[in-house]
């Protein structure tokens, strides 16, 4: 099996619910970043609009090795 180099690292953060905002209120926040190796990335784009469907817009294509689990 051929493997490709993963020369770059990005910080992956997850959403954390129930973080106290200092006033006793539970809020939503972000975890500390975890370094994830990636092959690279591509600029933002949009899906082709089709009659009767919603258009999809995204900020970035990120190319990561198999096994990276995000949600």
Features:
71 residues, mainly beta, two-stranded antiparallel sheet, 0% helix, flat
Descriptive notes:
It is a single chain. With 71 residues, the chain is an all-beta fold. It has one domain (8-63). It contains no helices and 8 strands. The protein has a two-stranded antiparallel sheet with strand order 1-4. Strands 2-3 form a two-stranded antiparallel ribbon. A two-stranded antiparallel sheet has the order 5-8. The two termini are 28 Å apart. The relative contact order is 0.27.
- SSE string, helices as H and strands as E: EEEEEEEE
Instruction: Give the total of beta strands.
Output: 8
Q: What is the rounded Rg?
A: 17 Å
Terminal Cα separation, in Å?
28 Å
**Helix share bin:** under 10%
Mean pLDDT: 85
Counting helices, strands and paired strands, the structural category is mainly beta
Oligomer: single chain
Strand content: 35-45%
Q: How many discrete domains?
A: 1
Record the strand order, biggest sheet.
1-4
The low-confidence runs, each spanning 5 or more residues with pLDDT under 50, are none
Which of globular, elongated, flat, extended, rod-shaped describes the shape? flat
> How does the major sheet shape up?
2 strands, antiparallel
User: Counting H and I runs of at least 4 residues, what is the number of helices?
Assistant: 0
């Amino acid at each position: 099996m051929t493997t490709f180099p993963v020369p770059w690292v990005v910080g992956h953060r997850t959403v954390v619910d129930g973080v106290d905002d200092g006033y006793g209120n539970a809020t939503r926040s972000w975890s500390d970043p975890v370094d994830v190796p990636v092959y690279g990335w591509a600029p933002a784009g949009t899906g082709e609009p089709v009659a009767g469907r919603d258009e999809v817009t995204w900020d970035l294509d990120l190319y990561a090795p198999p096994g990276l689990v995000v949600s």
